[in-house]
């Protein structure tokens, strides 16, 4: 639509709608832009799928309906793992998922979601917004005509649900565990067998003994899936996904057709959801953990210290090897790694020191 | 301005501006609303003041200039501690500060900024957005016709700058420390003398021996103030301010005059800044700490464990006493305390466990 046409329609539409809507301005016109958002989540999936819904709602609300976004769950328009290509080709203007799903295009994409023993949610935001991360992420997606934005974070995940005890590194040998991505690679290096299964098949696979263990997200999502009925032990911490950034991806051409204010609304709505999802998990996980422990009598276990140490060393190897793939991967790794090292040093006198002081004395 | 008038002007303004601005819609009208934002910070103060600037900029940008916000530093329009009253009376439509500055109106306001040994930034957001906190905060400010929004967070602060060693609880006796609010009350209970001084006077007071110690924010802000030149030791963690929520306050009448899309833009811009400031500190603090340690040879020290334990017990007393002031304070305390207890239990298997695993193995 041309700008002048829009102005006429905007004015006409707004006046017509004004009677019903009460306070209204030119912004309350009929939708100038109608976008589709394809997602990698089941429709309305708690936290992740509802985060995508929130994002769409915020854009519509802040634009006064000038830009509407209709959300499609996985498979509704395209399968989960075709979301990136659908946005790249313009089949959908927008998508919601996570960068590690597209590692087939470039393994370095995984740095924009999470890596084992890497940055937490707030630290990821520090790297992305103020540490050069977003520039690298935009560079990564540029060949696909796709713009990335951070749009959600699961925070530190749990280690997962196990039917075998992990008392030493030897217990990882032969362990069949659903753990995708780099976490799975770490397990493989320590003798385990990573398996990749979609979320909907995990309960049955765990119950039947097809797998010995599975990671998922955290108490809020795990409780809903009923894993406590299929596994003996709930391990922590989730070293493999310490703060998984979810992404909104936007077709570049569609974005460039928007006026500057709608562009700002789209990008800032992503930032709101990026923060809001962390808040939602922060509020819902503690209560869900209490339910798992008190009502369902779940046995909570920490990975032993020496197992964590081995996992960390293997993680460092796996992540460092990503840097060897190509020049771009090397650049991303260097940026991420420097940020991580400074951040860990700071955390020991900041977040980590505080959380220990608060908890050690809480008995 | 009436809506119809605005529509005409919007269309005219947009067409006129369109040539220069490129892509433009009806939203690029002349400002329909011009707001003033008074703040408790020195103009452009890094992190806090620049956060207020960001907030104003985001609102202007997302509204396509329909709502502009001019930022005033402390004393430019009103003194820092009159910001709340200025927004309440409508002298300014908006303010940026922190709830604990207004504890003279009700001590319970402090729960909406931070309390010693309380919630971290993400946990605060969990309580506010999904745990009932925002509803209580709105109730707290309702008699003043002021709407609150979380709009920034300093994250876990540092303990502060000391010219006396803290080796045992006895070393707190007689300690003259600049530490305002509840942290100061905790110090007083352990025999110290809390002093309240504005930031600009701290360096001189510390250099001259007028005070023995001062807390401020964290490495990024502390480095800029040059405290390393005036103090021997840099203590951690900042038990007294584990995640101070900054606030935007909005005159209710001014807010109600906005159409729904601008209301959504104002409230969501606050959420963006709420997240963004945490990201900025996460990115800038680690490097500033490295500079303090490596270039300025600052001596970093942890409060001893038994001192932290005493501080925590005193903090619990001080915070619990807030609940006894009145029925509203009791209600806020009950909500906050329940959330805190569940959260601490979760953090021990989540954030805390992860940060320990990441750091313990990093040697």
What can you tell me about this protein's structure?
2 copies of one chain form a homodimer. In chain A, 48% of the residues lie in helices and 14% in strands. Chain A is of the alpha/beta class. The longest helix of chain A has 36 residues. Chain A contains 13 helices and 11 strands. Chain A has a domain of 194 residues: D-Maltodextrin-Binding Protein, domain 2 (3-Layer(aba) Sandwich). In chain A, helix 6 packs across helix 11. In chain A, the strands form 2 sheets. In chain A, strands 7-6-8-5-9-11 form a 6-stranded mixed beta sheet. In chain A, strands 2-1-3-10-4 form a 5-stranded mixed beta sheet. The interface between A and B is large, with 104 and 104 residues.
For the sheet with most strands of chain A, the description reads:
6 strands, mixed
Count the beta strands of chain A. 11
Share in β-strands of chain A: 5-15%
Mean pLDDT of chain A: 91
> Quaternary state, please?
homodimer
Give the overall shape of chain A: globular
State the end-to-end CA separation of chain A. Answer: 64 Å
Round the Cα radius of gyration of chain A to an integer and report it: 22 Å
CATH topology of the domain at 3-156 and 243-282 in chain A: D-Maltodextrin-Binding Protein, domain 2
Low-confidence stretches of chain A: 1-28
Count the DSSP helices of chain A.
13
Q: Which class of the domain at 3-156 and 243-282 in chain A in CATH terms? A: Alpha Beta
Instruction: Please give the share of residues in helix of chain A.
Output: 40-55%
Chains forming the largest contact: A-B, 104 and 104 residues
CATH architecture grouping of the domain at 3-156 and 243-282 in chain A: 3-Layer(aba) Sandwich
In N-to-C order, the SSE pattern of chain A is HEHEHEHHEEEHEHEHEEHHEHHH
Strand order of the largest sheet of chain A: 7-6-8-5-9-11
Strand-pairing-aware structural class of chain A: alpha/beta
According to CATH, the homologous superfamily of the domain at 3-156 and 243-282 in chain A is: Bacterial extracellular solute-binding protein, family 7
